[in-house]
Amino acid sequence: MSSPFEQILDPARRADPYPLFDRLRDTPVARQPDGTYVVSTYREIVSLLHDPRVSSDRRNLGSDAGEAPRDPSFIGLDPPEHDRLRRLAMRHFGPPHAARTVEELRPEMLAIATRLIDGLAGRSRADIVDEVAYPLPVAVICRLLGVPEEDEPRFHAWADQAIETLGPGEQDRAERERARREVLTELENYLAGLAEDRRRAPGTDMLSGFVTYHGPEGGMTHREVVATAVLLLIAGHETTINLIANGLLTFLRHPGLLDRVRAEPGLIVPAVEELLRYEPPVQLISSRIALADIEVGGTTIPAGSPVVLAVAAGSRDPAHTPDPGLFLLDRPRNEHLGFGGGAHYCFGAPLARLETQIVLGELVRRLRAPRLVADPPPYRPSAVLRGPRHLVIDYAGVD
Ligand code: HEM
């Protein structure tokens, strides 16, 4: 009988991993046969997210060093390098020019969502993943970075392949690693070319900011620009797509919820927060390494061990959240781990929240009598970034 964690990694269990996450929490810090430690309770995960002895830099995995990425982006670096690059990237995050808040992007995001949902009119069946959840975040992040719209389809394919090859598990590891590197190299070459263009003729986009800015701390090297752009592109949409798809799926499974949000559109804000807890797109943070012996939850994780933080289990920990298996719009306090925590807390959280609120709000408002064609829908294979591959719905029209 395989362990709960091994079963979670099995693609056949993707549709409903939550009973397995519940069992995983019976052993808050569980050593796996390969020496990886899986941590699954809220308190223990939070303490490790904030522990400087837990590294995100894969180069600290001695034996694995040959496989480490060539240009780690800041998600794979520790302070102080992490902090310098994250600060430099943050300066240019958001709409062009000063006084940026993601709120200023609302009209543009609404326009993109409106165009995509208009495209569903005149028929009665659609795949919400391919037609809405996927194109929306791609369009938003491409626009922020300054990727020309006509290149978006190429982009799509690269980011998709990069994600499908990701995640723990021994199956085809070498082949997946090879495919992943090939795709990342193509994406890097493309972005390096675009960065060169912006150096010669800067615009108002983020990439132009990256290549031209030099402050008291200096600027980004060419390699850092490319690594940061690749990170934003991939992190910026492969997660949001799943939140949108998981969101509509959850609404359609709970018709009372759909009616409430339709009647009171402001409820989309707590609904998205609850989704991040209840159906989180990032289920496992799988790239940490213990730099010292660390005692946590009554277990000592030995120095050098890979550590997996099962955030999807932590967000449903009954010791922290009452009735964690229920989707509730009116939780007095919703503390989830959907965006991680500590130094690597999601850089794009405000953007992701707003995109998802807008598009889900519009889907709920405009789709007439939507219903699922298949439940559960087919899932993408990754256990790390979990979400439906397709979400086919029938509906009676579009308002
Ligand atoms: C980091 C989740 C959307 C950019 C993270 C982490 C999580 C997460 C859990 C922590 C990873 C770790 O600790 O290793 C999500 C979810 C999203 C989302 C659930 C959508 C629903 C976005 C968007 C962007 C973005 C839209 C960019 C525009 C990043 C970056 C990091 C990050 C750059 C690394 C931060 C660092 O290392 O300091 N995200 N994310 N994410 N996210 Fe997101």
TrEMBL record:
Protein name: Cytochrome P450
Family from the record: Belongs to the cytochrome P450 family.
PROSITE patterns to which the protein is assigned, alphabetical: CYTOCHROME_P450 (PS00086)
Species for this entry: Actinomadura luzonensis
Cited InterPro entries: Cyt_P450, Cyt_P450_B, Cyt_P450_CS, Cyt_P450_sf
Keywords carried by this UniProt record: Heme, Iron, Metal-binding, Monooxygenase, Oxidoreductase
Region of interest (Disordered), residue spans: 56-79
